[in-house]
Fold this protein.
Amino acid sequence: MMPTVRIADIRSGETMAFPQEGVMTVDDLAIARARRSLEGLSLGDAFGQLHFKFHPRVSPADPLPPGPWRWTDDTHMALSIVETLAGLGRIEQDPLVRAFARRFAQEPNRGYGPGAARLLTAVVAGADWRIEAAKLFGGGSYGNGAAMRAAPIGAFFHRDTVRAASEARLSALVTHAHPEGVAGAVAVAVAAALSSCADHPAGEDFIAEVAAFIPDGETHDRLRQAMGIPANRLDQAISQLGTGYQVSAQDTVPYCLWVAAHHLDDFEAALWSTVAGKGDCDTTCAIVGGIVAMSAREMPASWLARREAFPKIQ
């Protein structure tokens, strides 16, 4: 059983001794970081789902809704990401797709989008993901689904943003063959890698470091635009960057990174700011939660107690 690890210890990158549990290796620490990002992602996912367009709105002034707060496909797919990292130490596409397909077959009602459902249904039936992913939407998906599950990759490779970007690209391509879909995943993974370090940048500098990894395109352009929006102009960020109403990477990720960049030390404030944009709330909150969990001192215990538990990672 893995010992409890403080966020300060996770971010230090050092090997630590635990008198009753033995010694955690650097790989153990990488897995601990990925699991913490998964916790934040899942908590954001479940919290955001409370605000989704078919659910009652809640505000910081209202009592917290009772649990369990159900998580969605965002968490379901991120579980497979962490499982692959824990088992292999890297993203290998075929095992990752098999994990995605296995979980989808077990629980297809987790809110999967039509493209992901179509692809994973085909994979379960024996199709090759390389063919099916490229066929989606006539050239590959640029949805936000690859981005929503990418934060644990950055947490795992936290001091190597180049590796985090490369592994995120591999993880995205199995479902999102369009360059914008890949760009969204790379941006989120790099952001999580940066936030996992004690000396992380913040605000405009944080977004700029992420943008440096993103090729020319709409996601890159909106990240550059996000750099010029002041921290106190949430309304401007919402109106100019998009909040996931289009369910695309370019309409989701820049807003999420703007929110995260200005709330790296406060998980709860980050999530309330995220849902203010409405849009695809479970996914925007999953992205922000997976990033900010690595830099904030804590996640709200009262929220964690209400979040639906998730299964053990194989």
